[in-house]
Write a structure and sequence with these properties.
Elements: E1 2-8, E2 14-15, H1 29-36, H2 43-48, E3 74-79, H3 87-94, H4 115-125, E4 129-134, H5 137-151, E5 154-158, E6 163-169, H6 175-189, E7 196-203, E8 210-211, E9 216-219, H7 227-233, E10 237-241, H8 244-247, E11 255-257, H9 262-275, E12 279-285, H10 287-293, H11 298-315, E13 323-328, E14 345-352, E15 360-365, H12 369-377
Parallel strand pairs: 1-12, 1-13, 3-15, 4-5, 6-7, 10-11, 10-12
Antiparallel strand pairs: 2-14, 3-14, 5-6, 7-8, 7-9, 13-14
């Protein structure tokens, strides 16, 4: 069996039951994106039952993607049980983990990070720090980039997520030095339970700065094995696309392609698919979150959704009777919402298997139902959390 597990980064579908606790009551990434552009055109995802999901929890409709009478895939919504609304927490729960308590968050500042942490980071890297506050990544790059070019200082900032982000001009601070600084920061941040250290390289001149695709993520050490390691231990091939290898610390992954855009990730999925005999491809499509959600750009978000749907229309022709495509998300990032941060939302789940009749998967209590399903499909012992999509509702 071949499975492509595709995480559409930040494509939430409506507020989670506890969204108010995060200041996100009313956020709905896909429905609000669709409304902002007066309708999405998603032929494949619509036929799979994407529009059938909001009625499961009384959520707002997705304009242009109405419910269909006979969906070609099984469909549902998943509610995160871990604390947080960040990338690591969402992906790890998809991989079978439960994060309680969640990662530590930091005040907007300045300063955001403790003085002891910053002083030790400066000592060990040999460069001083500027910033040290919560900020939009592009805004702080444009604001402090000229200072960095003149002084060689690190630009360090955080957000509403548990992140220690290091922004560096590639012509001022070489990539390898930036990556080494991230490794140092990761070590220093572990006692504070910081979810991610992120390398944010950029190029250009003042007024024309632009990020590159050389971003790297350094997550908190995983507290327990994920489904990826369980599959690898059973000699099931596991390939990773995009930042998946970073998120899971490379654990359980036989081979990865570290892509920087949706289009690159789609090509990587195709490449691995043609080589895969029995196993899993886990891919993150990052553009939704990185380029459009945080930038609050619903039109760009819509274009990315429609491009991905067009790609799926071609890719699905490669899928055989014993294969599956699983589509989900790790959190929300409503491009019409206030601020620039992630939103606490339910996420869609679509399971396409040729020859299988689509049905409602209902509301799932935990993203780790994906891990439980993969364990069943590949003949592993029952996963300790969650319930397989193939297990009837009345069976515990």
């Amino acid at each position: 069996m071949r499975v492509a597990l595709i995480v559409l980064d930040s494509c939430g579908i409506g507020p989670a039951p506890d969204a108010a606790d995060y200041g996100d009551d009313g956020a709905a990434t896909l429905p609000h994106t669709a409304a902002a552009v007066e309708g999405l055109h998603l032929r494949v995802l619509a036929s799979w039952g994407l529009g059938n999901i909001p009625p499961l929890f009384g959520g707002p409709p997705i304009v242009g993607v109405p419910p269909v009478r006979a969906p070609e895939a099984s469909y549902g919504a998943m509610e995160e049980q871990s604390e947080g609304k960040d990338t690591i927490t969402g992906h790890w729960e998809i991989g079978g983990l439960l994060m309680r308590p969640g990662f530590q968050l930091f005040p907007p500042g300045p300063p955001s990070f403790p003085e002891e942490l910053i002083r030790e980071f400066e000592r060990r890297t040999g460069r001083r720090v500027i910033g040290n506050r919560a900020a939009d990544g592009v805004a702080i790059m444009n604001e402090l980039g000229p200072v960095q070019m003149a002084t060689g200082a690190w630009i360090v900032y955080t957000s509403a997520d548990s992140v220690f982000q290091i922004c560096a001009h590639e012509e001022v601070i070489p990539l390898e030095e930036l990556y080494r600084a991230c490794e140092i920061a990761r070590e220093l941040c572990n006692p504070l339970r910081v979810g991610r250290v992120i390398a944010r390289p950029y190029v250009g001149r003042p007024g024309e700065f632009r990020r590159t695709t050389n971003r790297r993520d350094y997550p908190y050490p995983m507290p327990e094995p994920s489904i990826l390691e369980a599959l690898a231990g059973a000699r099931v091939q596991v390939y990773a696309v995009g930042k998946i290898v970073d998120i899971f610390n490379g654990r359980g992954i036989a081979e990865s392609l570290h892509t920087g855009t949706n289009v690159e990730s789609q090509a990587a999925v195709e490449s691995f698919w043609d080589r895969l005999e029995n196993g899993l491809i886990m891919a993150n499509f990052i553009d939704f979150d990185m380029l459009y959600g945080h930038r609050r750009d619903p039109r760009g978000y819509a274009r990315a959704l429609e491009q991905t749907d067009q790609w799926l229309e071609k890719f699905v022709r490669r899928v055989g009777l014993h294969d599956a495509i699983v589509i989900t998300a790790d959190h929300g990032n409503d491009p019409t919402w206030r601020g620039t941060d992630h939103t606490r939302e339910r996420v869609p789940i679509l399971v396409y298997r040729p020859g299988h009749t689509g049905r409602s998967l209902g509301l799932r209590k935990g993203y780790y139902d994906v891990a439980a399903t993969l364990a069943q499909w590949f003949g592993l012992p029952t996963w300790p959390r969650g319930r397989s999509f193939d297990v009837p509702d009345h069976v515990n």
